[in-house]
Amino acid sequence: MRAFLICAVIAAVLSGCTHDSVEPTAQPTVPVFDAAESWDGANSPVLDWSTAQRDTFMRQYDETVSAALAKAGLPNDLPPDATAIDSLQRAEAIGSAVPRPAREIALLVTVDDRTSTTLDGADEATALDTAWKVCARLAQGESYQDLVFKASATFEASARTASDTSELAAALYAPIICPEHAPDALTTIAGVDGPDALP
Predict the structure, then answer these.
(1) Roughly how many angstroms between the first and final C-alpha of the chain, as a whole number?
(2) Which residues of the chain, if any, have pLDDT below 50?
(3) Structural domain spans, the chain
(4) Is 178 exposed, middle or buried (0-12, 13-18, 19+ CB in 10 A)?
(5) Residue 173 contacts residue 110 (beta carbons within 8 Å)
(6) Count of other CB atoms within 10 angstroms of residue 48
(7) Radius of gyration of the chain from Cα atoms?
């Protein structure tokens, strides 16, 4: 029953304006952060960065990420039909080779992509807060399977809004920001119903 619920909820987790002319714009500066600082997920510095600033920050680590993925035998880009397993394998391969803000940006992009929604500021803060709480409980010894089951049950009892779905996705993909727990997540998800059944 638990495996069925997790599988069902994982499945549940599964343009812009144009102008005639575009004026050149200055390239955004690379955002900075204090590596010694610790913050709650909902107070992450990335929440104050624009999309352009986040992109600029992430480009600093292109070579690091590419090297880690190549070492693990993984493609540099996720395929259009990527599954949860694909995303978490990348998290495991990259590990802590990139700093916390980069992992948080990666989580937000994944949640946004996988839920087909555009997260607003409040949704992003909730997603990061949810993911870090899952990571904290994993660090305390709780299993990924139990935590996803609890998140699934909460989702089932909710109104199933876009925000609810994003929060569930954040729990599911939490190991992107705490990659030391990606192996546990991969084992759990692969055992649900096989990778081909996952979004």
Answers:
(1) 19
(2) 4-5, 7-9, 11-12, 14-21, 24, 194-199
(3) 42-197
(4) buried
(5) yes
(6) 10
(7) 17
In the chain, the percentage of residues whose pLDDT exceeds 70 is 79
Kind and range of the H or E run holding 102? helix 100-115
HSE, CB side, 13 Å, CA atoms: give it for residue 25: 6
Helix (H, G, I), strand (E, B) or coil at 68: helix
Please identify which residue in the block is written with the tokens 């709650």: 40
Relative orientation angle of helices 51-59 and 100-115, to the nearest 10 degrees: 120
pTM above the 0.90 mark?
A: no
Provide the residue type at 11 as one letter: A
Neighbouring residues of 98: CB distance < 8 A, sequence distance ≥ 6: 61, 64, 65
